[in-house]
Amino acid sequence: MKIADIDLGSRPLFLAPMEDVTDPSFRHMCKAFGADMVYTEFISSDGLIRDGAKSVRKLNINDAERPVGIQIYGNLIEPMVESAIIAEGAKPDVIDINFGCPVKKIANRGAGSGMMRDVPLMVEMTRRIVETVKTPVTVKTRLGWDDNSKNIEEIALRLQDVGIKALTIHGRTRAQMYTGQADWTLIGKIKNDPRIHIPIIGNGDINSAEKAREAFDRYGVDGVMIGRATYGRPWIFREIKHYLETGEILPQPSVKERVEIAKNHLLKSVEVKGERVGVLEMRRHMSNYFKGLPEFKQTRMKLVTLFDIPELMDTLDFVAERWGDYDFSRTVPPSLSHEI
Q1: Rounded distance between C-alpha atoms, residue 120 and residue 104, angstroms
Q2: Are 165 and 6 spatial neighbours (Cβ–Cβ below 8 Å)?
Q3: pLDDT in tens, 27-77
Q4: Do residues 4 and 165 touch, judged by C-beta distance below 8 A?
Q5: What DSSP element (H or E) covers 316?
Q6: How far apart are CA 203 and CA 74, in angstroms?
Q7: Quick one: DSSP state of residue 13?
Q8: Residue 50 contacts by C-beta under 8 Å, 6 or more apart in sequence?
Q9: Looking only at Cα atoms, what is the longest distance across the chain?
Q10: How many CB atoms lie within 10 A of CB 9?
Q11: Which DSSP letter does residue 172 get?
C-alpha cells in the first residue's frame, strides 16, 4: 500500500490519533512494536493559528516515528488552511484532516464528524488544503451523521476527486459514538467500488489479531487502523503482524515483560516532557499495563501517585517479583479508551 510516494508495505497497521493518548512517548512504544504509521493527537486549527502552547506542542515529531501524520480539525476553511501550512512546517509525512471526531463540543460546532452534515463545505475545505500544501493530504471520517444519513459513499468519491491520497473510515456514525458494533460491510463496499482508486483504511473494533485479518481478507481494505485497543497494549501491533504472517496467536506478554515496557515508556515520557509532566502523563498508561492483576489496588495507587522516578522503578520491580508468575491469557484485554 502507498500513500502518495510513502510505501507502507503489504497489510499495514496504523495507530489512530487519540487525544491525550498518542503523544510522542506512546507513538514511540507503538512504533517499537510494529505500527507501520502513527499519528499525533488531533490538533485544533484555532489553537494552532493562535499559537496556543498545547496545540503547538502536539506538532513535535521526530524521524524515528516516520512515517508520521499530523491530524488537524476545525470548522472554518481559512483557519484550517492556515493550520495546514503551520503543520506542514513540522515536516510530517502526511497531513490528516479530522472529519470523524464525535465528541459533542467538537461535532456540534461543525468540526470533526459535524462536517458530515455539510458535505460541500467539507469538500471545499479539503480542496483548499490539498491545493495549498505540498505534503500528501488524507482524511479520517465516519459512515455518516446517523443511520438516516450514511453518506460516506458520496463523501469518499468527492474527497478523492479533490485530491486526497488515502481515506480512513471508522465504521460507525456520529450518533453511535462508540456504542454498538462497527459496520465493516459499508467500509468494504467503498473499498471494492471500482471508482475508488485511493487506499481505504478501515477502523473500528479491531482489538485482536483475528479481527485484523478478517478486515483484510473479508473486506479487502488496504490498511487497518487501531485505536482504543492499543491503550495499555501497544504490543497489539506485534500480535497482529505475527498472526498475519504465521497464523499463530502469540501469548500475552508476561508481567516481567510488561514491567520492562512500562519502564521504557516512563523514561521516554520523561525524556520528551520533563520529569514532572512526563510522570503525570504516564499515569494514564501505567496501571493499564497491569490491568487484571489480582490484589493490585494498593500497588496501582503507588504507580499513579508517586513522582520520584527511582521509587517508581522500585515499585515496578516489586510488580515483577510479586506477580511474576501470573498468566495474562486468562485476563480480558484492557478496556477501550476513546479514538476519534
Answers
A1: 22
A2: no
A3: 999 999 999 999 999 999 999 999 999 999 999 999 999 999 999 999 999
A4: yes
A5: helix 309-322
A6: 21
A7: E
A8: none
A9: 59
A10: 10
A11: S
> CB neighbours of 201 closer than 8 A, spacing ≥ 6?
14, 166, 167, 168, 169, 221, 222, 223, 224, 225
Q: Which grid cell sits at 182?
A: 462497527
Q: Which residues are catalytic?
A: 101
d(CA 37, CA 40): 11
Give every CB contact of residue 25 below 8 A, 6+ residues apart in sequence. Answer: 265, 268, 269, 271, 272, 273, 278, 281, 282
pLDDT value at 324 more than 90: yes
Tens of pLDDT, residue by residue over 136-190, are 999 999 999 999 999 999 999 999 999 999 999 999 999 999 999 999 999 999 9
The interaxial angle of helices 24-32 and 255-273, nearest 10 deg, is 140
- CA–CA distance, 276 with 270 (Å, rounded to integer): 8
Q: Please give the backbone phi and psi of residue 207, each rounded to the nearest 5 degrees, phi first.
A: -125, 15
**Rounded to an integer, what distance in angstroms lies between the CA atom of residue 108 and that of residue 33?**
36
Work out the angle at residue 73's Cα, subtended by the Cα atoms of residues 51 and 70, and round it to the nearest 5 degrees: 75
* Share of residues in the chain with pLDDT > 90 (%): 93
DSSP state of 249: P
- Calculate the alpha carbon distances from 141 to 60, 94, 152, 241, 321 in Å: 24, 16, 8, 25, 45
Candidates 315, 223, 192, 325; CA nearest to 263 is 315
pLDDT score for 287: 83
- Per-residue pLDDT at 340 exceeds 70: no
CA distance 274 to 282: 11
Kindly indicate the confidence band of residue 333, based on its pLDDT and cuts at 50, 70 and 90.
low
Domains of the chain: 9-246 (3.20.20.70), 255-328 (1.10.1200)
Neighbours of 177 (CB within 10 A): 14
Return the H-helix or E-strand segment holding 97: strand 94-99
Q: Beta partners for 97?
A: 72, 139
Q: How far apart are CA 275 and CA 291, in angstroms?
A: 24
Q: Which residue has the cell 498518542?
A: 22
